[in-house]
Amino acid sequence: MIRNLWNDLEGTFFPESALDHMPEARLREVQLQRLKAVVALTYEKVPLFRERMDAKGVKPGDVRTLADVRLLPFSTKADLRDTYPYGLFAVPMSEVVRLHASSGTTGKPIVVGYTAQDMEVWKQVIMRTLYAAGFSRSDIVQNMFGYGLFTGGLGLHGGLEGIGATVIPISGGNTERQIMVMKDFGVTAVCCTPSYFIHLIEMAQKMGIDFRKDLKVQRGVFGAEPWTDQMRQYIEGATGIKAYDIYGLSEIIGPGVGAECHCQDGLHIFEDHFLVEIVDPQTLEPLPDGQEGELVFTTLSKQAMPAIRYRTRDLTSIDTRSCACGRTVRRIRRISHRSDDMFIIRGVNVFPSQIETALLKTEATLPHYQIVLTRKSGLDRMEVRVEVSGEMLQDTVGAMDALQKRFGHSIAQITGLTAEVTLVQPGSIPRSEGKAKRLFDKRNEG
Ligand SMILES: [Zn+2]
User: Fold this and answer.
1) Out of 47, 111, 198, 421, which could bridge 407 as a Cys pair, Cβ 3.0 to 4.6 Å?
2) CA nearest 366: which of 175, 198, 223?
3) Candidates 3.50.50.60, 3.40.47.10, 3.30.300.30, 3.20.20.70; correct CATH number of 342-441?
4) 200 Cα to the center of ligand 1, angstroms
C-alpha cells in the first residue's frame, strides 16, 4: 500500500537535500512503485476510474513501466464537477481530515480532500518549496494568500510552520494594514499572488514607504495565477526583493507541486509525489521533452483523492537540462498562460500574458491593465486599457499620444493584431486581492 512505500522514504526525509537530490534511477524506481500502488488503489475505490479503465480494457497489472501511464484514461475538472462533492474520493470520509474547495465562480465548486498522511505530504512539499526559495526559520513571513476553502493560505501555512519560520496568518485584503504589519513586525518574506503584490507596492508608495529603506522584506513566493518574467523584473526592480514563482493546483494538492530554486530558471516538480507528462492538447498524444503542450499530472502518494492523468489546462514544456542548483527533480518552464485563458480575436489566438509582456516592454508603465473585447457590425475589437502614472497625465497631449502609439506598436509586434489603446487615470482599474481578472469579453452582449 501507499502508506508503506511512503514510510520507506519518510525516515530519510531532509527537505533541503535528500528528496530533491535523489539519484535519477532511484527516483524513477520510487515513481514506478508508487504509480502501481496508486493505480491499484484508484481502480479498487473510485468507480468512475474503474469504468474508464474497463472501457479501455486496461487492468492495474498492465502498468509495468512509467511509460505505461499512457495506457490510463485522462481526467478533467468536469469529472470533479460531475461527481461533486466526494465522488472521486478513494477513502471513507472517516479518513478525511481536511476539505478544500475552489471558489466556484461558475456553478458548483470542486471539492478536494486530504487524509492525515496527505496533510503531511502537503506540508513537506511546501517546505521543499520554501527551502528552494531561500526561506528559513529566521524568516518572519507575512502570508497574504487567502485562508479558508482556497488551498493557498492554509497550504503555505503548514509548510511555513514546518520550516520553523514565524508565520503571520494575515490572509488577503486591507492593504494599508498589510503595509503597516510588514513594517512594524519586521517582515522578511511574503507569500501572495503577484497581482496583489503589485497592489501592495503601489500602496506603499502612496503611504510614503520605501521598500528598500523602510522595510526588511527580502524574498517572496508568488503564485496562484500565471505571471510573466517582465512582471518579475518589475517586482524585483521596484522593491529589491527576490521574487520566486511557485506552482500548484487544488486538484493535485494545492501549492507545492513545483517551485523555483535560486536559479529562477523554471520550476522543479516534486517528482517523487507527482508524475508529470506533457501532451498535445488537441490529440492528447504525449509530446517529447522540450516541446510545449498541456501539463498533465498523476499523483503518486495522494490517498484521499488521487488524480490520474489530470489535465491542468496549463501550457508548458519539460526542461531536462540539469539545474545549477544540483536538484535532480526535473523542471518545467514557467507557465505564462493557460489554455482556458486564451481568446481568439479575428482568427488569432491571444493570451493575456502576451498583452502584459507588450505593455511591460514599453517603458514607464504600471502593470495594471484590462483587455476588453467587443463586437461592432460583426467585427471584433480589442481595447487595452492601461493605467498611467499621475505625473504622466500632466504630460503634453503629444507625449500621451506618443505613449499610446508605443503601446499599440508593442502589442502589434507581439500578437500581430491592432488594439485600441486607452490610457486611464491612476487607480481606475480595480485592484485584486487574489487572482486578477484581466479579460472582459463582451462580444456576445447586446
Ligand atoms: Zn534548480
Assistant:
1) 421
2) 198
3) 3.30.300.30
4) 28
